[in-house]
Structures are given as C-alpha cells and as structure tokens.
Amino acid sequence: MTITATTGYADLHAHTTASDGTLTPTELVQAANAAGLSLLAVTDHDTVAGVGEARAAAEAAGIGLVPGVELSADGAPGKCHLLGLGIDPNHAGLRETLARVSEARRTRNERIAERLLALGAPITLDEVVTVAPPGANVGRPHFAQALLAKNIVRTRDEAFDRFLGDTAPAYVPASSLTPGEAIALIRQGGGLAFLAHPALVKLAPGETMRARLEALKALGLDGIEAYYGQHTLAQIEQFLSLARGLDLLVTGGSDFHGAHKPDVFLGDVFGGRGVPLSVLPPQLTGAAGRKEPCPDGASRAPSPN
User: What is the Cα gyration radius of the chain?
Assistant: First the structure.
C-alpha cells in the first residue's frame, strides 16, 4: 500500500518461517497489526522468500511493508550482519546471489550434521529439515530444534552451548559474502544497507565503532540500526551520535524470531514501542503507513537530524 505516514511506529527487523522465525509471513503481519505497528520489515536471513506473502497480508491489514533481507558478512573490515531495507525482492541479480548463498548454507548444514554425529549427537539433515517449516532456509536454530526433539539437549541454549554456538565443537563457519559484496548486493537490489545490531558487533583490539562505520561507509553503507530492542539507552545515544557525525541514516527493529527468541517481542524496539516513523529515512516511510497511525507519545532518544 502507498500511504505516507510520519507518525506511528515501526519494527524494521523481523524474521519469519522463511528463515529461522517461527511465525509465517502472514502470522508476522497479523502480530504486527495486533501490536499497533504502522510499518513492518521482513528481514529473513539470506532469503526474500517470505516477502510476497507478507506483502499480501500487509495490504489486507492496512500495514506498510518494507521488503528486506539480513545478510551475514565476513571479511575486511570485519564480520557483521547487514540489513537490506527497501529492496526489490524480484531483482534477478539479488535472487541469483541469494540462491548461491543458500546452496552454501546447505553444504554447511551437511558438515554440521557430520560433526554432531562424531560428537555422539546423531542428527541427520533429514531430521533437521523435518522440524523446519516448509521452504525454510535451514540453519542452526533448526538443528537445535532437532536436538530437542530427540532429547539430546533439554533447552535451546544448551544446544548452542554444547554443540552449535560460535565456539562450540559442531560449529562450522558460514560461507559469507564480504561486507563490501553484501552492501553492493543490497544497493544493486534497490535497497538501503544498514549495519545490524551494532552493539553486538565484535570489534578488533583497539578498533572503535566509529572506525568500523567509516570503513563500511567507504564501501557504500547507508546507515546503522541505532534503535534495537537489546540496546541500552546509552548505546542508542552513542549510535545516534555516530550517525549524525558520519551522515548515516538510522533504522530500528526488534530482531523478532518468535519462539526461537522468546524474550524478544515484536514491536519492542525503544521505550516499549516500535521506532518512531519520524526518525526513519523517508525512502522507507514515504511509501508505506497505516490508515490510522498509532498515537504518538513514547519517550524518545534524540533524532539523528
């Protein structure tokens, strides 16, 4: 839908069953509507498969929908996740590259299954696919589900601590795009590239966040996810200040995954609400909104402008 809105709230970082979320695209839109959001972005990992269904559901619900994707990137200037917002999900080059990334993901999954078997946790890839929603981009959260289903672990956290986490014995590094490649892909697909959840980025010894952002901006980065459900107010202020100083756009989202992250709630981005539309780039809010915007009034961090 094309309803311009400058008031109301958005959540521009959410996942569906197309990757590692537990709500279908339609269910995610319905949850966003129930949460009083004006604008929602679907940002599944390495896939745009859920965007079409979400767009149809958003049109029916009267909610603005931003097509998005979350890309894992590794290489200079450092490992990070990048959000592509406002992309064209039908862009041929984007879809072709995402298909290659998904194929690499399948190879990685085979290696994870082999390592789990060697560790005495026999989980076949077929079993993992069985517990994943149809068409999902299978990843480590689905391995955790399979381990739970076979009573090899008691909790999801145990699955990651013992087997699947970045420092655990069954971990296999992802075959990722470099940050420069990921940013170029997002921009090629018509979107804006944002550094996701910057407080979670691991900086090199002596490296500052400003230096990382400067390096990413030189590669074409458009902005930073300053508003994030797990950021403290002090961190939000820090990232807004950096955005102002470096002339970067800002975005905000909860990183909602449903039951896979039960403590993360859709629409809980800043002050118990979504990020105010008034601080988001007009490229994202100018063509989407809600028929009756939510009442304004949440406490705010300073605007980046």
Answer: 19
Q: Is the pTM of this model over 0.85?
A: no
Sheet with 64-73, side-by-side order of all strands: 249-253, 223-228, 192-195, 80-85, 64-73, 39-42, 9-11, 275-276
H or E segment at 153? none
Alpha carbon distance 281, 263 (integer Å) = 28
Residues of the chain with pLDDT under 70: 1-6, 175, 287-305
φ, ψ of residue 300 to 5 degrees: the values are: -130, 145
Q: How many CA atoms lie within 13 A of 48 on its CB side?
A: 26
CB-CB contact of 85 with 194 (8 Å): yes
Query: 54-93: per-residue pLDDT in tens?
Result: 999 999 999 999 999 999 999 999 999 999 999 999 999 9
Q: Which helix (H) or strand (E) holds 195?
A: strand 192-195
Residue 177 per-residue DSSP state: B
Task: Say how far apart CA 140 and CA 133 lie, in whole Å.
Answer: 14
The upper half-sphere exposure of residue 67, i.e. CA atoms within 13 Å in the direction of its Cβ, equals 22
Three-state SS across 108-142?
HHHHHHHHHHHCCCCCCHHHHHHHCCCCCCCCHHH
Q: Residues with Cβ < 8 Å from 194, sequence gap 6 or more?
A: 82, 83, 84, 85, 221, 222, 223, 224, 225, 249, 251
Up-side HSE of residue 236: CA atoms within 13 Å toward CB?
A: 20
Query: Rounded distance, CA 239 to CA 104, Å?
Result: 33
CATH 1.10.150.650 fits 98-164, yes or no: yes
Q: Give me the residue spans of the domains in the chain.
A: 98-164
- Give the tokens for residue 209: 């966040």
**Sequential DSSP letters for 12-51:** --B--TTTT-SS-HHHHHHHHHHTT-SEEEE--BT--TTH
